[in-house]
Amino acid sequence: MKVIICGAGQVGWQIAKQLSVEKNDVTVVDNNPALVRRATDTLDVQGIEGFASYPDVLEKAGARDADMVIAATYSDEVNMVTCQVAHSVFNVPRKIARLRAQSYLTAIYSDLYRRDHLPIDVVISPEKEVAEAALRRLAAPAAFDTQAFLAGRVQLMGILLEEECPVLNTSLRELTELFSTLRATVVGVRRDGRLFAPEPKDQLFARDEIYVFAHSDDITRTLEIFGKTNAKQERVVILGGGNVGLGVAQALEARTERVRAKIIERDRKIAEKAADALERTIVLNGDGLDPELLSEAGVSRADAVLCVTDDDKVNMLAAVRAKTAGAKMAIVLVNDPTLVPILNALDIDAYINPRATTVSSILRHIRHGRVRNVYSVGDSEAEVIEAQVLSTSPISGKRIRDIDFPEGVLVGALTKGDIYVKPMGETRIDEGDVITIFSLAADVPEVERLLQVSIDYF
């Protein structure tokens, strides 16, 4: 597949990395020569310096025979014009644009993106994706990572195993025998910084970070087995009243169960805008690092503090102060992945990586076959792919134990029609089944080969 990625920032670079590893023909376009050079020096991609919306630049990038254009520059308008030029001049079949401004995302203006207007096939909103990720973290406070699959029937949860975990030094085979009725499967383990797909004989140890698929009805029991409790979030303090914080507060207000939320926002105009848009949420204007303001917001009684400003260090410091004051849980937005390793030492419970959430959204619309969902795990160390099995797929009609999966691949869950099935060695995968597969990044191309039909689908 030939892909042009416009914008070589964090998101563009990560998408280029993912697609180039999978042997796609990737060209990166950016008007910053340093970013283009970084991409071409570190990745197996071609680079073009220039403005992505210029027809001559797109032509140099190979738009005349490109399969897809991904417009992920920092400018919404450049991304929109790039898609228009790609369609009108070069007839590129698939166009994806990252748009930030909320006005472009309002439902009443959705006709704007029809092919006879602005021909954008997929619109990705980073702020919306991050807000949804924050809500998932709040829904499963005991997990450091979570994502729904199979129409909400299954949750992928990242769980840190503490010293008091009751199943330490127990192999996965023994866990299956001890809890035979538990609809949960461990698909990934990160130990000493290395992520791997475990075998049945592998044991679990303290400080392991595990990724486990659990049926939605078995989440509480699964967490208890691994030494966690899933408390309700009744009081939430949100630091940052921009698009992300506002989106989370609006979603909390829409819930049937009552959640008391407060927002702290430093910018007065943004605070006033948030206050006008919300009904029950209290908005405080001031510095979220001010101990007196944190006390006024009630962080000492908060079930969760969500720090989602555009400054990583402010988010981290505010989270530390909130936890010190008595907050039960702290979740932070972190753009810089190099800061993630120190979060545990700071007693920060969970983090949201906006790059990873945006990359996951874009990958969902790139993968071959009938892929329904894609989630990027960690710093793109692995992917979880949800897809429907086609009659022409090499895995159709085979039992899991007879499929030649790579070592870094495990089936996490599947459904046959409306029936959930916990994957076992003797489980047969049939045409029409929907499966979720955990795959280390290097093994994704082989997973795609096992899932796709004889021609590529977009």
Q: Report the major sheet.
A: 6 strands, parallel
Q: How much helix, percentage-wise, in residues?
A: 25-40%
Number of H/I helices: 13
Unreliable residue stretches: 453-458
In round numbers, the mean pLDDT is 89
Rounded Rg: 23 Å
Strand content: 25-35%
> What is the approximate shape?
globular
In the sheet with the most strands, the strands line up as 3-2-1-4-5-6
Characteristics:
24 strands; six-stranded parallel β-sheet; 458 residues; globular
In short, what is this structure?
With 458 residues, this protein is α/β, with parallel strands linked by helices. It has helices at 10-21, 33-42, 55-60, 76-88, 126-139, 172-178, 219-225, 243-254, 268-277, 291-297, 312-325, 354-364, 444-451, and strands at 2-6, 25-30, 46-49, 68-71, 94-98, 122-124, 145-149, 154-160, 184-191, 194-196, 209-215, 235-239, 260-265, 282-285, 304-307, 330-333, 350-352, 370-377, 382-388, 398-399, 409-416, 419-421, 428-429, 434-440. Strand 15, helix 11 (312-325) and strand 16 form a beta-alpha-beta unit.
Overview of the molecule:
With 458 residues, this protein is α/β, with parallel strands linked by helices. The protein is 29% helix and 26% strand. It has 13 helices and 24 strands. It has helices spanning 10-21, 33-42, 55-60, 76-88, 126-139, 172-178, 219-225, 243-254, 268-277, 291-297, 312-325, 354-364, 444-451; strands at 2-6, 25-30, 46-49, 68-71, 94-98, 122-124, 145-149, 154-160, 184-191, 194-196, 209-215, 235-239, 260-265, 282-285, 304-307, 330-333, 350-352, 370-377, 382-388, 398-399, 409-416, 419-421, 428-429, 434-440. Strands 3-2-1-4-5-6 form a 6-stranded parallel sheet, sandwiched between helices. Strand 15, helix 11 (312-325) and strand 16 form a beta-alpha-beta unit. Helix 1 (10-21) packs across helix 12 (354-364) and helix 5 (126-139) packs across helix 12 (354-364). The radius of gyration is 23 Å and the shape is globular. The chain starts with a strand and ends in a 7-residue tail after the last helix. Residues 453-458 have low confidence and may be disordered.
